[in-house]
Design goal:
heterodimer; A: alpha+beta; 5 domains; 13-stranded mixed beta sheet; 6-stranded mixed β-barrel; 25 helices; about 15% strand; B: mainly alpha; Arc Repressor Mutant, subunit A; elongated; WH-like_DNA-bd_sf (chain B); Helix-turn-helix transcriptional regulator (chain B); Tscrpt_reg_PadR_N (chain B)
């Protein structure tokens, strides 16, 4: 019949310009005429006349119009919206799960993205951060290499003068919680830097009052916005005077905006450098020095020049010790990810964990998306017959797509506010429970915003793609014919993803169990000392007589078992000192940790002796008491029998030993640091007037504690009214050392909840999908005589396969990941069979509950409902 | 579109007559055929369509969709029918013409 139709291209032209409502009748008439002419006049003439007629029909009244259609379009949108709403109401659970699931996944993914961006832009706040470098010290001493974050005071200025490529420098020292007096109020929790005048000029802190000359004169202080408010309320802080430490009066010379959370420089106040006398010593590593290099300068060149210059000062630095000094440079933005140096004030983050987070974000997002699509697909599958019939009767694909768009838009309009709410709540939660601060400026970061938009677009697009595929004519025809049971490729992909989600949950469950195990281990492990019922008071005064009378007064109190003093307290920054120790080849110098304490110390903490004994109680304070070392030290020095060996030290600058004596006892190792580190060698000697005890340990009986604290405070205030009363329980302090690990635990707990939620969603969505697809099969089976329980198990069988697959993938990962984390601890738990079986059981439970719901539904279907359409 | 008074154009009259006369399906092609048959005039189909539409707008015809055939490739026709107003109009116009014609001297047509 093809030869009897008019030329296609003319037809095409006609259908292109012609108003669709008139097209049919006009074209019909033209076809009829064509047929007549074909018979009477032949093809050529018929074609020609057809063309002529078509051209003649190109009249104004026949051409397509836009304006009347516009009104229709608006009406169509409103209609689709109403339909979408009605659709949602019809299937409330599905709708709820879809939107909630998508919102949770999206908000979590966005939160993690914000966190990642926060970490990756650490210190990017400073405009010229690419040119700012911190100088650090690499000291080699007796074959031991130690890398310090601190440098000699004068090194920054010296380097700047010597090397032209360095434009500027700044330096500061860190004061650990100094005391501020404001009238009769005392503040002792403010992180303080003592900074020189270039600090504000090189870095980009915004001045709210005052100018950047603020640190050029002595006795000046710069406050952050929050501190100014804390000190002075809403009054103007500029020009006010604050009393500091031992009689310094500081004038507030400037107020700056609060520094961002994602910066390694965390401070509340800056005091000008010239307020104090600094001995421009080269021999002490005390200050943090930073350099600003010129804009187009090659850093390697600068580094080489620095090494050369340092040679000039080298002898000044290491004149007393037999060692070498090297100056290293690292860019300010890399400090956050680099290794933790000695006396480093920066908070460190492992870069690998950030990359892991990125992977988690992608997985999370894909998971949420797939769940959403699955559930949408399920709903659609139920109504596919209806859709295909509509299609046959002329429902235009365009209009159908419009309906889909409006439905997606409606869901998004609910999801977006939910995401914003979840996100906000998540940020708050992170700050309060996990002490993870995400700077608010990150929320404006282009990367984050574009990621968010990208996520949304992907949801939109994939939804459309999915449904568009389904409305294609080929699909509809197959649907009508009833031939579309498992949809091949699409479903396998989803199955893989659900298995992936499940293995993720299994990993999470297993890891949480391991973490909890490790924490129990930590709490119950033998630390080598007893930290129960001990409160520790911090003394700021260096007055030894005062300390002694304080200790005496406390000893008299009711409920006090023991009182001891020490220079050491968990968590303070340790300094190592040089000692001379006896070896077979004479006295050798070594850098070792040390502690001085009072006689009762070992008894108070119940530390056991391996060899020898403690300081005699009836001995008077003097130089002859000798040293005590721990087992690790004995091992490090190569002494089998430590008692009797000679030690000199600590050595001062002029190579003079403070005291010289014999080892009188070797204590069993006690771990004051966390179980992350192996116990280090330590030398202990008796405190005296020069080496005092800033920390007083008070062992109490468990009953009297509350009252005791008030009495101790009263005693403290009697002796030192000008100082704040600071105290802590030793066991709480000890646990707080594990802060980072507790944070990790919190993160994992949250992660566990989220991953279980997602797995449930995933299983639910796939289960729903399979249920609908196989409903016909189930119906037939039931008719043939299957019992509901059999159908239930049939439905579950699919998921058991998932479980097997998931476990296969998860177990090696659990082993690997837990190994990695446990390696952080020098002492840790060992995994056993239960660690693997428990998560499996949990996962099985999850499957039973979520898939079971669908399973029961499909087992109880009335076969008539399914089969009556056949 | 408002009609400019009560006049009927020449083609309009022809088409109206055709619609009034034809007993079978009245649509574009049949009207064109009938006009050719009666007058020998070959009117372009688009003109016929236009006139039919205009007459419908004036209220002299009604239309409906119906009747697809294979020749038309399954496309349906728009079928027209005379309204009462259309019939009246036709009679009015023809009567008027006859009146005028009667007054011409020496005509050879027999008018009844």
């Amino acid at each position: 019949m093809k030869e009897n139709s008019p030329p296609k291209w003319i037809d095409w032209f006609l259908s292109w310009y012609c108003n669709p409502s008139l097209l049919e009748e006009i074209q019909g008439d033209l076809y009829e005429l064509y047929a007549e002419r074909l018979e009477k006049e032949g093809r050529w003439s018929a074609d020609l006349k057809y063309l002529w007629d078509t051209l003649r029909c190109f009249r104004w009244s026949n051409i397509k119009r836009k304006s009347p259609l516009l009104n229709n379009r608006q009406g169509l949108w409103r209609l689709s919206f109403t339909l979408a709403l009605r659709h949602a109401q019809k299937n409330k659970t599905g709708f709820l799960i879809k939107t909630l699931g998508l919102s949770i996944c999206l908000s979590f993914a966005l939160l993690l993205t914000a966190f990642v961006v926060n970490e990756l832009t650490f210190d990017h706040f400073h405009v010229n951060h690419k040119q700012i470098y911190r100088v650090s010290s690499r000291v080699t001493f007796e074959n031991q290499v130690t890398h310090y974050a601190v440098t000699p005071f004068p090194i920054g200025a010296a380097l700047k003068d010597a090397i032209p490529e360095i434009e500027n420098y700044f330096r500061f020292t860190y004061e650990e919680k100094p005391i501020y007096y404001l009238g009769d109020k005392i503040f002792y929790d403010e992180a303080t830097f003592i900074a020189d005048s270039n600090f504000l000029k090189v870095l980009s802190y915004r001045l709210l009052a005052g100018n950047d000359q603020a640190l050029s004169e002595p006795d000046k202080i710069v406050l952050t916005e929050s501190l100014a408010r804390k000190f002075f309320g809403n009054n103007n802080a500029l020009g006010q005077v604050v009393e500091y430490g031992e009689g310094f009066e500081l004038e507030v010379a400037a107020i700056i905006e609060d520094p961002p959370a994602n910066s390694h420089l965390r401070f509340d106040a800056l005091i000008s450098w010239d307020t104090f006398d600094h001995y421009d010593e080269w021999a002490n590593l005390n200050a943090y020095n930073y350099l600003l290099v010129g804009p187009e300068v090659s850093v390697t060149q600068v580094k080489d020049k620095v090494s050369a210059e340092v040679g000039n000062f080298h002898d000044l630095i290491v004149r007393e010790y037999n060692g070498t000094f090297e100056a290293m440079l690292e860019n300010i933005a890399e400090i956050h990810f680099s290794q933790n140096l000695e006396e480093d004030i920066a908070e460190k983050r492992n870069k690998r964990s950030v990359l892991l987070l990125i992977a988690a974000i992608v997985l999370l997002f894909i998971t949420g998306l797939i769940n959403y699509l699955n559930l949408t697909l399920t709903e659609l599958t139920g109504s596919i017959k209806k859709m295909s019939i509509l299609g046959v009767f002329g429902g235009l694909a365009k209009d159908h797509r419009k309906m889909l768009t409006s439905e997606t838009a409606m869901i998004l309009s609910i999801v977006l506010p939910l995401v914003a709410w979840f996100g906000y709540y998540g940020l708050w939660f992170a700050e309060t429970h996990m002490s993870t601060y995400i700077d608010r400026s990150v929320l404006m970061n282009p990367i984050l915003v574009s990621t968010g938009i990208g996520f949304l677009l992907l949801v939109f697009a994939s939804n459309h793609l999915n449904l568009w595929m389904l409305s294609g004519p080929g699909y509809l025809i197959r649907a009508l014919k009833g031939r579309f049971n498992t949809m091949g490729k699409g479903i396998s992909l989803r199955k893989v993803l659900v298995a992936g989600q499940m293995s993720f949950s299994i990993i999470m469950i297993a890891l949480i169990i391991i973490i909890v195990d490790q924490f129990n281990f930590i709490e119950n492990a033998d630390k080598g000392f007893d930290n129960k019922d001990i409160m520790v008071v911090k003394l700021r005064s260096p007055n030894p007589a005062g300390m002694e009378s304080f200790s005496q007064a406390i000893r008299q109190m009711d409920g006090v078992v023991q009182v001891a003093g020490s220079s050491y307290f968990p968590g303070i920054i340790e300094t190592k000192y040089v000692f001379q120790i006896e070896t077979e080849s004479g006295m050798k110098q070594q850098l070792i940790s040390m502690m001085n304490c009072s006689v009762e110390y070992f008894k108070t903490l119940n530390i056991q002796f391996d060899q020898g004994h403690g300081f005699y109680e009836n001995r008077v304070l003097g130089h002859e008491d000798g040293f005590i070392i721990n087992e690790a030290a004995a091992k490090a020095f190569g002494w089998e029998k430590g008692v009797g060996k000679i030690i000199n030290g600590p050595l001062s600058g002029q190579n003079e030993a403070y005291q010289s004596g014999k080892v009188i006892g070797v204590v069993k190792d006690f771990n004051f640091a966390t179980l992350h580190e192996t116990i280090e060698p330590m030398i202990i000697f008796l405190s005296d007037d020069n080496w005092t005890n800033p920390f007083i340990y008070i062992k109490t009986s468990p009953i009297h504690q509350a009252d005791l604290i008030t009495w101790v405070e009263k005693e403290f205030k009697t002796l030192w009214p000008q100082y704040p009363f600071e105290w802590e329980y030793l066991d709480t302090k000890y646990l707080s050392l594990y802060k980072k690990d507790y944070e990790l635990k919190s993160i994992f707990e949250v992660g566990l909840v989220i991953s279980i939620l997602i797995s449930c969603l995933g299983i639910f969505s796939i289960s729903a999908l399979l249920g609908t697809l196989r409903s016909k099969e189930m119906g037939i089976r039931k008719v043939v005589g299957a019992a509901p329980s059999q159908l239930f198990f049939l439905h579950l069988k699919n998921f058991l396969q998932f479980l097997m697959m998931a476990m296969l993938v998860a177990y090696p990962l659990v082993w690997y990941l837990s190994d990695q984390w446990l390696q952080n601890f020098a002492y840790h738990v060992v995994l056993n069979g239960w660690n693997y079986i428990m998560p499996g059981i949990f996962a099985l439970l999850i499957i039973l509950i979520t898939a079971g719901y669908q399973g029961i539904k499909s087992a109880m279907i009335n076969p008539i409902d399914i089969l009556e359409h056949e | 579109m408002n009609t400019k008074g009560v006049y009927l154009g020449e083609l309009e009259e022809l088409v109206l007559l055709s619609v009034a006369t034809l007993s079978e399906d009245v649509y574009g092609v049949t009207v064109k055929r009938y006009i050719f048959q009666e007058t020998g005039r070959s009117v372009n189909i688009s003109a016929i369509h236009e006139v039919l539409k205009r007459l419908q707008r004036k209220g002299y015809l009604t239309s409906r969709i119906g009747g697809a055939t294979k020749t038309r490739g399954g496309r349906r026709k728009r079928l027209f029918e005379l309204t009462a107003a259309g019939r009246n109009k036709l009679e009015q116009v023809i009567t008027m013409k006859m009146q005028m014609y009667k007054q011409v001297p020496n005509i050879s047509i027999k008018l009844t």
